[in-house]
Amino acid sequence: MATLPGMVRGNQRIEPEDVQLQGPLLDPKYTDDAAVQLVIQDAARARTYIDQKQWNLHWRESDVLFQSPRTNQAFEGSTVARANVSRFTVAKHVNSLVPAMKSGVFYEMPPFLIRPRPATSQTTARAKTALYGALLDECKFEQVSERAMESMTTFGTVIVKVGWRRDTKIKKIRSPKEEPLRMKLPLNGEIVIHTKESETLIVTDQEIVEEGLTIEVCELGSVLVDPTWNDPNNLQHAKYAVHVT
Question: Does 106 or 4 have the greater pLDDT score?
Fold first, then answer.
Protein backbone atom coordinates (compact mmCIF):
# COMPACT_ATOMS: atom_id res chain seq x y z
CA MET A 1 0.00 0.00 0.00
CA ALA A 2 1.37 3.41 -0.98
CA THR A 3 1.95 6.05 1.68
CA LEU A 4 0.31 9.38 0.89
CA PRO A 5 1.65 12.74 2.14
CA GLY A 6 0.44 13.31 5.70
CA MET A 7 -0.62 9.68 6.12
CA VAL A 8 0.06 8.03 9.49
CA ARG A 9 0.77 4.30 9.86
CA GLY A 10 -0.19 3.07 13.30
CA ASN A 11 1.47 -0.34 13.12
CA GLN A 12 5.03 0.91 13.46
CA ARG A 13 7.16 0.12 16.51
CA ILE A 14 8.68 2.77 18.75
CA GLU A 15 12.43 2.26 18.70
CA PRO A 16 14.79 3.23 21.55
CA GLU A 17 16.31 5.99 19.45
CA ASP A 18 12.85 7.62 19.24
CA VAL A 19 12.80 8.26 23.00
CA GLN A 20 15.11 10.65 24.82
CA LEU A 21 15.31 10.47 28.63
CA GLN A 22 15.48 13.87 30.34
CA GLY A 23 16.18 12.86 33.94
CA PRO A 24 14.28 11.25 36.81
CA LEU A 25 11.95 14.23 37.39
CA LEU A 26 11.04 14.91 33.74
CA ASP A 27 8.94 12.94 31.28
CA PRO A 28 10.76 11.28 28.39
CA LYS A 29 10.81 13.22 25.13
CA TYR A 30 9.47 11.48 22.02
CA THR A 31 10.01 12.35 18.40
CA ASP A 32 6.94 13.51 16.48
CA ASP A 33 6.50 10.16 14.69
CA ALA A 34 6.95 8.20 17.92
CA ALA A 35 4.42 10.42 19.72
CA VAL A 36 1.86 9.77 16.98
CA GLN A 37 2.47 6.02 17.19
CA LEU A 38 2.06 6.12 20.98
CA VAL A 39 -1.29 7.93 20.72
CA ILE A 40 -2.57 5.49 18.08
CA GLN A 41 -1.55 2.44 20.13
CA ASP A 42 -3.07 3.83 23.36
CA ALA A 43 -6.32 4.68 21.56
CA ALA A 44 -6.54 1.18 20.04
CA ARG A 45 -5.95 -0.39 23.46
CA ALA A 46 -8.69 1.69 25.08
CA ARG A 47 -11.10 1.09 22.16
CA THR A 48 -10.64 -2.68 22.50
CA TYR A 49 -11.42 -2.41 26.22
CA ILE A 50 -14.67 -0.51 25.55
CA ASP A 51 -15.74 -2.97 22.84
CA GLN A 52 -15.13 -5.94 25.15
CA LYS A 53 -17.34 -4.38 27.83
CA GLN A 54 -20.07 -3.73 25.20
CA TRP A 55 -20.86 -0.35 26.75
CA ASN A 56 -21.76 1.06 23.34
CA LEU A 57 -24.74 -1.30 23.21
CA HIS A 58 -26.03 -0.06 26.58
CA TRP A 59 -25.60 3.59 25.60
CA ARG A 60 -27.53 2.93 22.37
CA GLU A 61 -30.29 1.18 24.33
CA SER A 62 -30.60 4.16 26.70
CA ASP A 63 -30.83 6.49 23.70
CA VAL A 64 -33.63 4.39 22.18
CA LEU A 65 -35.54 4.36 25.48
CA PHE A 66 -35.25 8.13 25.70
CA GLN A 67 -36.59 8.69 22.17
CA SER A 68 -39.17 5.88 22.44
CA PRO A 69 -39.74 5.42 18.68
CA ARG A 70 -42.99 3.87 17.54
CA THR A 71 -42.56 0.30 16.26
CA ASN A 72 -44.93 -1.80 14.16
CA GLN A 73 -45.99 -4.98 16.00
CA ALA A 74 -48.65 -7.57 15.25
CA PHE A 75 -50.53 -10.07 17.40
CA GLU A 76 -48.87 -13.46 17.63
CA GLY A 77 -49.82 -15.76 14.78
CA SER A 78 -51.66 -13.10 12.80
CA THR A 79 -51.07 -10.01 10.71
CA VAL A 80 -53.39 -7.82 12.78
CA ALA A 81 -51.48 -4.78 14.00
CA ARG A 82 -51.35 -4.04 17.69
CA ALA A 83 -52.27 -0.67 19.15
CA ASN A 84 -48.95 1.09 19.58
CA VAL A 85 -48.49 4.16 21.77
CA SER A 86 -45.04 5.58 22.48
CA ARG A 87 -44.17 5.68 26.16
CA PHE A 88 -41.70 8.45 26.90
CA THR A 89 -40.99 7.19 30.41
CA VAL A 90 -37.26 7.89 30.37
CA ALA A 91 -37.68 11.25 28.63
CA LYS A 92 -40.35 12.28 31.14
CA HIS A 93 -38.08 11.58 34.10
CA VAL A 94 -35.09 13.27 32.44
CA ASN A 95 -37.12 16.37 31.62
CA SER A 96 -38.31 16.50 35.23
CA LEU A 97 -34.90 16.08 36.88
CA VAL A 98 -32.74 18.30 34.66
CA PRO A 99 -34.62 21.61 35.24
CA ALA A 100 -34.57 20.98 38.99
CA MET A 101 -30.82 20.32 38.99
CA LYS A 102 -30.16 23.33 36.74
CA SER A 103 -32.15 25.70 38.94
CA GLY A 104 -30.22 24.43 41.97
CA VAL A 105 -26.86 25.18 40.34
CA PHE A 106 -27.70 28.35 38.39
CA TYR A 107 -29.87 30.11 40.93
CA GLU A 108 -27.91 33.32 40.35
CA MET A 109 -25.34 34.72 37.92
CA PRO A 110 -22.50 34.12 38.13
CA PRO A 111 -23.17 30.71 39.70
CA PHE A 112 -20.36 31.07 42.24
CA LEU A 113 -19.01 33.47 44.83
CA ILE A 114 -15.33 34.24 45.42
CA ARG A 115 -14.46 35.05 49.02
CA PRO A 116 -11.19 36.84 49.65
CA ARG A 117 -8.50 35.22 51.76
CA PRO A 118 -6.58 37.26 54.34
CA ALA A 119 -3.96 38.26 51.74
CA THR A 120 -6.58 39.22 49.11
CA SER A 121 -8.68 42.37 49.08
CA GLN A 122 -12.42 42.45 48.49
CA THR A 123 -11.85 44.54 45.33
CA THR A 124 -9.66 41.78 43.86
CA ALA A 125 -12.28 39.15 44.70
CA ARG A 126 -15.01 41.19 42.96
CA ALA A 127 -12.79 41.70 39.91
CA LYS A 128 -12.07 37.97 39.65
CA THR A 129 -15.77 37.18 40.04
CA ALA A 130 -16.63 39.52 37.17
CA LEU A 131 -13.82 38.15 34.98
CA TYR A 132 -14.69 34.49 35.54
CA GLY A 133 -18.37 35.22 35.04
CA ALA A 134 -17.64 36.87 31.68
CA LEU A 135 -15.51 33.90 30.59
CA LEU A 136 -18.30 31.45 31.52
CA ASP A 137 -20.86 33.52 29.60
CA GLU A 138 -18.61 33.62 26.53
CA CYS A 139 -18.22 29.82 26.41
CA LYS A 140 -21.99 29.30 27.07
CA PHE A 141 -21.33 27.49 30.32
CA GLU A 142 -24.99 27.34 31.37
CA GLN A 143 -26.20 25.80 28.10
CA VAL A 144 -23.37 23.26 28.01
CA SER A 145 -24.00 22.35 31.65
CA GLU A 146 -27.65 21.66 30.85
CA ARG A 147 -26.57 19.28 28.06
CA ALA A 148 -24.16 17.61 30.49
CA MET A 149 -26.95 17.10 33.03
CA GLU A 150 -29.19 15.58 30.35
CA SER A 151 -26.44 13.14 29.33
CA MET A 152 -25.69 12.28 32.94
CA THR A 153 -29.37 11.63 33.68
CA THR A 154 -29.99 9.60 30.51
CA PHE A 155 -26.82 7.50 30.31
CA GLY A 156 -25.64 7.59 33.92
CA THR A 157 -22.35 9.25 33.01
CA VAL A 158 -21.00 12.27 31.18
CA ILE A 159 -17.58 13.51 30.08
CA VAL A 160 -16.99 17.25 29.81
CA LYS A 161 -13.84 18.62 28.18
CA VAL A 162 -12.55 22.00 29.33
CA GLY A 163 -9.76 23.85 27.57
CA TRP A 164 -8.33 27.22 26.63
CA ARG A 165 -8.47 28.54 23.07
CA ARG A 166 -6.05 30.93 21.42
CA ASP A 167 -7.09 32.18 17.98
CA THR A 168 -5.24 34.59 15.73
CA LYS A 169 -7.56 36.68 13.56
CA ILE A 170 -7.33 39.61 11.18
CA LYS A 171 -9.57 42.49 12.28
CA LYS A 172 -10.32 45.61 10.25
CA ILE A 173 -9.61 48.79 12.22
CA ARG A 174 -11.18 52.09 11.11
CA SER A 175 -9.34 55.23 12.10
CA PRO A 176 -9.16 58.84 10.85
CA LYS A 177 -6.52 59.64 8.27
CA GLU A 178 -5.15 62.47 10.42
CA GLU A 179 -5.83 63.84 13.88
CA PRO A 180 -8.04 66.94 14.11
CA LEU A 181 -6.47 70.29 14.85
CA ARG A 182 -6.45 71.44 18.46
CA MET A 183 -6.14 75.09 19.38
CA LYS A 184 -5.61 76.27 22.92
CA LEU A 185 -7.76 79.08 24.24
CA PRO A 186 -6.37 81.97 26.25
CA LEU A 187 -8.22 80.73 29.31
CA ASN A 188 -7.60 77.11 30.19
CA GLY A 189 -9.21 75.05 27.46
CA GLU A 190 -8.99 74.14 23.78
CA ILE A 191 -11.16 73.75 20.73
CA VAL A 192 -11.08 70.88 18.21
CA ILE A 193 -11.23 71.76 14.53
CA HIS A 194 -12.07 68.91 12.19
CA THR A 195 -10.52 68.91 8.75
CA LYS A 196 -11.18 66.93 5.61
CA GLU A 197 -8.37 64.52 6.50
CA SER A 198 -9.60 64.02 10.07
CA GLU A 199 -13.08 63.13 8.83
CA THR A 200 -11.72 60.66 6.26
CA LEU A 201 -11.60 57.12 7.62
CA ILE A 202 -9.03 54.61 6.49
CA VAL A 203 -9.30 50.84 7.03
CA THR A 204 -6.26 48.87 8.10
CA ASP A 205 -5.84 45.17 8.83
CA GLN A 206 -4.57 44.40 12.31
CA GLU A 207 -3.66 40.97 13.65
CA ILE A 208 -5.24 40.30 17.03
CA VAL A 209 -5.12 37.28 19.34
CA GLU A 210 -8.36 36.16 20.99
CA GLU A 211 -8.24 33.90 24.01
CA GLY A 212 -10.99 32.35 26.05
CA LEU A 213 -12.38 29.36 27.89
CA THR A 214 -13.83 26.38 25.99
CA ILE A 215 -16.13 23.69 27.33
CA GLU A 216 -17.89 20.89 25.47
CA VAL A 217 -19.81 17.71 26.20
CA CYS A 218 -18.01 14.75 24.62
CA GLU A 219 -20.02 11.98 23.02
CA LEU A 220 -19.76 8.74 24.97
CA GLY A 221 -17.32 6.42 23.26
CA SER A 222 -15.31 9.25 21.70
CA VAL A 223 -13.07 9.67 24.77
CA LEU A 224 -10.70 6.73 25.20
CA VAL A 225 -9.20 6.47 28.69
CA ASP A 226 -6.46 4.24 30.05
CA PRO A 227 -8.19 0.88 30.86
CA THR A 228 -6.22 0.57 34.11
CA TRP A 229 -7.67 3.83 35.50
CA ASN A 230 -10.24 3.16 38.25
CA ASP A 231 -11.22 6.68 39.37
CA PRO A 232 -13.91 7.84 36.91
CA ASN A 233 -14.45 11.26 38.47
CA ASN A 234 -10.82 12.33 37.96
CA LEU A 235 -10.03 11.58 34.34
CA GLN A 236 -7.57 14.48 34.24
CA HIS A 237 -5.18 12.39 36.38
CA ALA A 238 -5.34 9.26 34.20
CA LYS A 239 -2.20 7.99 32.50
CA TYR A 240 -3.65 9.01 29.14
CA ALA A 241 -6.93 10.06 27.55
CA VAL A 242 -7.54 10.33 23.81
CA HIS A 243 -10.43 12.37 22.42
CA VAL A 244 -11.38 11.22 18.91
CA THR A 245 -12.88 14.12 16.95
Answer: 106
